[in-house]
Records
---
Amino acid sequence: MEQSEKKPERVSIVLHSGDMDKVYSALIIGNGALAMGMEASIYFTFWGLQRLQKGGLEKGPLSKMHMLGLGKWMIKRRMKKANVASLERLLRDFKELGGRIIACEMTMEIMGFTRHDLREDLIDSYGAVGTYIREARESAITLFI
Amino acid sequence: MADIKVDTTKGECPLDEAKIKVDCRGETCPVPLVEVRKALRKASPGDVVEVVGTHPASKKEIPMAVEALGLTLLSVEGPDDDWTICIRR
């Protein structure tokens, strides 16, 4: 029987930055992809992986005009006024809709993180570049943030 | 990409039929899309999901998601900042 059940298309994102605004971008795109019926994965590496430390999600600076935290404070205030969802909520939604989170093992080594330091409950797998390439070669969209 | 055309003159969303209601009034990108997707995942085939919201871009984008998911858009009603969308899973 020739039944070619179409596999959902995939988005694979590398989150290299730990900046708050860029973490937002990754999670918003990831959630958007899942909401529109795609598969999605986010590969947290380097500064991005710091955001997966316990208590680290909201700790990122602004990528521009951080101004020792003043810029971030102002942006956060405006985001609250516009009722923008928190990173925590977006991360939970991402997981609930089936998004996958991959943690970079080399970054863990460099930064001295053990799995216990990270939010293990959210991480689907631990990997290196091969894991990302395997994801990306089967993806319709891949982004480096 | 061509706009998705919906006949909004057909009358009201079948309110009684809507089993699942999603209220994302006041929410902004990407929450309305995400909440609709969550509701559709919980719905059974044939169920009607009714969504109300106030985020203008979502009024256009929820129909795009419905099309991408291969589901049926029943109606899109109301102004851009106070709309109701009905979807059949």
Note: Residues 10-144 of chain A form a domain with the Hypothetical Protein Ychn; Chain: A, fold (CATH 3.40.1260.10).
---
Amino acid sequence: MSMPFYVSPEQLTKDRAEFAQKGIARGRSMVATTYDKGVLLVAENPSASLNKISEIYDRIAFAGVGKYNEFDRLREAGIRWADGTGYTYSREDVDARALANYYAQYLGSMFAEGPKPLEIEILIAQLGNELRPTKLYHLAYEGTITDEERFAVLGGDADTIKQRFVDADQGTSDLAGALHHAVSALSGPDRVIPATDLEVAILEDRGARRTFTRVSDADVAELLTH
Amino acid sequence: MGLPLFSVGEDPGPSFLQYLEAQGVTRSLPMGVDSPHATTVVAVRAADGVVLVGDRQATGAYIASRDVRKIEAADRFTAIAISGSAAMGMEFIRMAQLSFEHYEKMTDAVLSLEGKANYLSPLIQRNNLTTPFLVLPLLAGYDVNRRRGRVFEYDGAGGCYERSDFVTIGSGTPFAESALRLGFRDDMTIDETIELAALAVYEAGDNDPATGGPDFVRNIFPMIVTVTNAGFEELSHDETAERFRAIHERRTASGGRPGGALR
């Protein structure tokens, strides 16, 4: 009987982290930021039909980077969880924090025990009201969860983009200003991302129960010319 | 409830109902409970949309409630109304609303109006064949793909039928339907359709003891809804009151005789 080679937990974790990071770095990044009336989510996404950003519930949005099939499965689970919870209890009991924790547990267990770690990062954005604050929950591939108030960056280039975002940050602005800022952080000084390669959505209160809206390519182009 | 993840073979897809069943969260009531019933709603097709009018009374052995809302928006362009068991009906509306929204979020596409109508069939079938709390809904809306109003009715076993003119549900049906049969014309304006549909429910309230007509004492009136390319809109309380007051005054002037009411 052959004995498996001994691999130290440090080495195993390092290998798995490297694997996940490589996978995530293959895809493009995304930025989420608050603006004066809500939350803006911007992803670089050349596909018009395979979405990275999606509605989860009345005041909750989802965004994923990395392997599409892996985060899309979690997106579906999030919608089911939210609709199921709202149906069983009440719509106001659906809390992004609870969902983010479930995601964190799942990502953590897949990282430690799964056949391979998931090559994804996830963002759960919640538009605040009198019950809950506006929050951006950032979930890393290994299940680390951080909650941001102002902005979050997901993807392989996150550190560079984050730095660009911080350097040019002038505080909370209107939608056009926030979009400008987010897109220039995403693209960097040396290239221009066409509006058709941007997937943009917002969470904003406009009197309706549901606050999630996709911003069309035409509207994105219009906002960026301001 | 943890994160609901499914294996590829067991995935319930975008159907909220199938998801609930996979989770075992469907609800049922004990047999043999006497529960109040929701009564009369009409949905009438107009030239560029549909009009729904429904009374506000839930009736058991006695009047159980005078201000029930039996017509609700299932989504922006779809109205759903219920008759039969009030408890099941309310649950039914909730399930329809959630299901359509769930589908939309899961697939990033809106169900067609016909798709929504068909989705309700098995729901009705299961409820009506397994519980004594019969519920009979109707679905009416503006079909954004075909740019016209459409109305759908169901039979007790869940069969779904589109009608070209109007649908009535509830105990006041014979009276409401008679008024609609005499008054319906193709291509009526929304305003004319409201007038006819309101009269139909007034007739039902006048003749059917379980249906509530306009209640001038409590200032409660049947609700009036239009669904057009502008979406689901409910007429304000004042507008509704005015419509029913006008019918009531005409009827008072004629000494209670309905003759000529449609002219």
Note: The longest strand of chain B covers residues 135-143.
